[in-house]
């Protein structure tokens, strides 16, 4: 698997009682709020990358000990990259799955604005790299397979980006139940309101406006771009669709899980 030098693997020991999130920027907002029972202080005063830091970033070492317990971390690692101490820990995982066609589109724009990633080339070129796993964190199918087959039992919750877009309060309820937080309906609604795309885009601590331009250039493409499901329809033609479907279907042949979306 290709890993860009930026995402240097850090030598880290996972302690019990850490929540790891395989997923999106959205979780860096939702999780701290669920864990704090809806207290907005941290999400309004601490930037998201320090509030729920990335496991794969060297910065983690500087901030991890200062996080309130239980800690929330995020990662894009496949399961095989998790340190051995993770396997025997009690850390819980919320794995956010998203329609791979939308991941491709989102990743294409991210490669345009992130200075530490290769230029994506044309959409066609990028699709081939994506399907071959010649991008950071490798093949999407390998990633999903690794976590689906990880056998973490009740330590892992699978949730889709699409269900979060469709009904955010219900999704927050699923997450809070999974973490054994007994949040009132009022708190769930408050968190959902704060985690809407519009609120996050207007939160300086979450919209990456504090991220230096040399890493991400919001002038090229906004990091928080649309926050919708199904944007692939604006980018795929029928050839792209046929190619994408045939590769992904073949890669998942024989797997004992099915995808919650149609690839058509
Ligand atoms: C959960 O919270 C509600 C009030 O929001 C309370 O009535 C209920 O007893 C609590 N349940 C548990 C198991 O703590
Ligand atoms: C981030 O939020 C601040 C404060 O609301 C706003 O001024 C700025 O334009 C936002 N930046 C982006 C890139 O959305
Ligand atoms: C699915 O298959 C994997 C091996 O590919 C296996 O480890 C796992 O136990 C299976 N899961 C279920 C729910 O059958």
TrEMBL record:
It holds the Pfam family Sulfotransfer_1. The chain crosses the membrane at residues 12-35. Keywords: Catecholamine metabolism, Cytoplasm, Membrane, Transferase, Transmembrane, Transmembrane helix. Its main location: cytoplasm. GO terms for biological process: catecholamine metabolic process; xenobiotic metabolic process. Residues 23-253 form the Sulfotransferase domain. It comes from Poecilia mexicana. InterPro entries: P-loop_NTPase, Sulfotransferase_dom. Gene3D superfamilies: P-loop containing nucleotide triphosphate hydrolases. It is found in: Cytoplasm. The keyword Membrane applies. GO terms for cellular component: cytoplasm. GO terms for molecular function: sulfotransferase activity. It is an enzyme of class 2 (transferase). It comes from the Eukaryota. This is Sulfotransferase. Belongs to the sulfotransferase 1 family. Its EC number is 2.8.2.-.
């Amino acid at each position: 698997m290709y890993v860009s030098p930026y995402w240097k693997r850090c030598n880290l020991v996972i302690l019990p009682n850490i929540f790891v999130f395989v997923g999106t920027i959205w979780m860096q907002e939702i999780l701290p709020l669920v864990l704090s029972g809806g207290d907005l202080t941290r999400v309004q005063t601490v930037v998201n990358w320090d509030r729920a830091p990335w496991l794969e970033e060297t910065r983690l070492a500087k901030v991890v000990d200062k996080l309130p317990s239980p800690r929330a971390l995020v990662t894009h690692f496949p399961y095989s990259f998790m340190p051995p101490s993770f396997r025997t820990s009690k850390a819980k995982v919320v794995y956010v799955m998203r329609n791979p066609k939308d991941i491709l589109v989102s990743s294409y724009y991210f490669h345009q604005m992130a200075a530490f990633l290769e230029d994506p080339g044309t959409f066609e070129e990028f699709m081939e790299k994506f399907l071959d796993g010649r991008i950071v964190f490798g093949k999407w199918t390998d990633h999903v397979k690794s976590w689906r087959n990880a056998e973490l039992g009740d330590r892992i919750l699978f949730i889709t980006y699409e269900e979060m877009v469709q009904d955010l309060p219900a999704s927050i309820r699923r997450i809070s139940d999974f973490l054994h937080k007994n949040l009132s309906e009022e708190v769930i609604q408050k968190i959902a309101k704060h985690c809407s795309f519009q609120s996050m885009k207007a939160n300086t601590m979450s919209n990456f406006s504090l991220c230096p331009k040399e890493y991400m250039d919001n002038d090229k493409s906004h990091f928080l771009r649309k926050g919708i499901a199904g944007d692939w329809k604006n980018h795929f033609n029928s050839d792209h669709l046929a190619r994408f479907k045939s590769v992904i279907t073949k890669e998942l042949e024989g797997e004992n899980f099915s995808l919650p979306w149609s690839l058509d």
